[in-house]
Amino acid sequence: MKTFSLSSRMLLGRFLTRSGDQAWDFAVPLVLLQLLPGELRIAALYYLLIRIATVFFLPNLTKKIDHVDRLRAAQIGIFLQLIGVAIGFASVLAIALTSNHNFQSPEFISIFIFLVISGVISQLGSTFMDISIANDLVPSSFEGESLSKFNSRLRQVDLFTEVASPVAAGALLLLTSLHLPVLGFCLIALWNVVSFFPEYSILKSIFNERPDLKNKPIRIDSVSQKGIFSQIKNGWSSFFREPVALVVLAYALLWFSVLSPHGVLLTAYLKDGWNLPELTIGVFRGLGAVFGLLATVLFPIVVKKLSINRASFLFLTFQAVTLIFAYVLFLSADSFGQIGFLALILLSRIGLYGFSLGEMQIRQTGILPGVRGEVNGFANALTALATIGLFAAGVALPSTEQFKYLVLSSVGFVIIALVVYGLWYRRQVSSN
Question: How many domains in the chain?
Answer without folding.
Answer: 2
